[in-house]
Design a protein that fits this description.
Layout (H helix, E strand, L loop, with lengths): L1 H14 L25 H6 L5 E3 L6 E4 L5 H6 L13 E3 L6 E7 L10 E7 L2 H14 L8 E7 L4 E7 L4 E2 H10 L5 H24 L2 E2 L8 E4 L4 E4 L6 E2 L2 H25 L5 H11 L5 H5 L1 H7 L12
Antiparallel strand pairs: 1-2, 2-4, 3-4, 4-5, 5-7, 6-7, 8-10, 9-12, 10-11
Helix pairs in contact: 5-6, 5-7, 6-7, 6-10, 7-8
The protein binds adenosine-5'-diphosphate and magnesium ion.
Pfam families: Pkinase
Organism: Pseudomonas asuensis
Protein name: Protein kinase domain-containing protein
């Protein structure tokens, strides 16, 4: 019985792999919508689901949210976005093994931070460095917040826990905008420019802290679906940098817009004139020397009129 309940919960979970629902009512049954949650600790263990990560230093315990045995996963047919161990994968990158969803067991289930992102590293040094960078950058809504770091000797892996950015990374966010049938091209353009404004603000916030990010990539910018917040993360290669190095990095951001956003926008029939202007300023092609000194700052200050001719007031 217990196992059946857990399996049903598991199936529900696989059908709707989205963020936790809090207090929402199912229009069909009138009851609360099944939460984005597998069951109690007892349900989990009776279904053969394991995976409690405890950080000895902070005393915080995190349960990897889905860890059915491989046997159960195979019976359910492994859905996309789950790994062989049944962990829901939020994403994967170049430095980490993967990023999966974890539950902070210390907090009540409906708490905003009950579900967190867990980044798995093979080496402790990299995990510790990345966590130290988060701490050095400090608390700022423009930076993804790191919560904890743990080394689990039995796994020979390290884990960094972060707030989960529910809107996913910049690539996923823009792809969704570009493919949205209900939006007109001019509406898509506004949403694209909003996202780009967010990315510029994030990098500017890092530069203002005296850092360069070191790994400019559309997948290192994150969106929060509820608050429309944009934040930058993945600080594994971030370090202190002088203004010249920061200007080089602004150019890299321009290259990234040109390479990763422009072609997608054109394919979606979105007008890219404003985007081209932003890229031009970041590339340093504006004649005014003030633009060359602080391209991102000038762009943000003159956002309402991003035509290059009007940039300097
Ligand atoms: N806090 C998070 N919330 C939601 N998704 C995330 C989060 N952190 C990472 N991801 C997803 O995982 C991917 C890889 O994470 P990242 O920290 O960039 O690792 P890597 O160092 O391997 O590039 C991201 O591009 C994103 O898709
Ligand atoms: Mg990354």
């Amino acid at each position: 019985m217990m196992l059946n309940n857990a399996l049903n919960l598991l199936r529900n979970r696989f059908d709707t792999p989205q963020r936790p629902q809090t207090g929402a009512i199912d229009p069909h049954s009138g009851g609360p919508i099944a939460r984005d949650y597998l069951g109690t600790r007892d349900d989990l263990s009776s279904a053969g689901i394991i995976g409690s990560k405890i950080n000895a230093e902070s005393g915080h315990a995190y349960i990897t949210q889905e860890r059915p045995s491989v046997h159960i996963v195979e019976r359910l047919e492994l859905p996309r976005n789950y790994d062989r161990n049944g962990n829901l994968i939020l994403g994967s990158g170049t430095n980490s093994v993967n990023i999966s969803l974890a539950r902070n067991h210390q907090l009540p289930e409906d708490h905003a931070n009950a579900y967190v992102a867990m980044k798995t590293f093979v080496g402790y040094e990299q995990a510790a460095l990345e966590y130290a960078n988060h701490q050095a950058l400090g608390d700022n809504p423009r930076f993804v917040k790191a919560l904890d770091v743990a080394h689990v000797t039995s796994d020979e892996c390290s884990y960094m826990f972060m707030e989960r950015m529910t809107g996913g990374d910049g690539k996923a966010h823009l792809e969704q905008i570009f493919r949205e049938r209900a939006l007109r091209p001019d509406e898509k353009k506004e949403l694209m420019l909003d996202a780009i404004h967010g990315y510029l603000s994030c990098l500017k916030a890092m530069h203002d802290k005296g850092f360069k990010h070191g790994d400019i990539d559309i997948k290192n910018f994150f969106h929060d679906a509820d608050s429309h917040r944009v934040a930058i993360g993945d600080f594994g290669r971030s370090r202190q940098a002088n203004p010249a190095q920061q200007i080089d990095e602004a150019k890299e951001l321009g290259m990234m817009f040109n390479r990763d956003i422009r072609p997608e926008a054109l394919r979606a029939r979105v007008d890219t004139k404003d985007l081209d202007n932003i890229i031009g300023v970041l590339y340093g092609s504006h004649p005014d020397p003030r633009v060359k000194e602080d391209p991102i700052g000038i762009l943000l200050k003159n956002w309402a009129q991003i035509q290059p001719n009007y940039l300097i007031q």
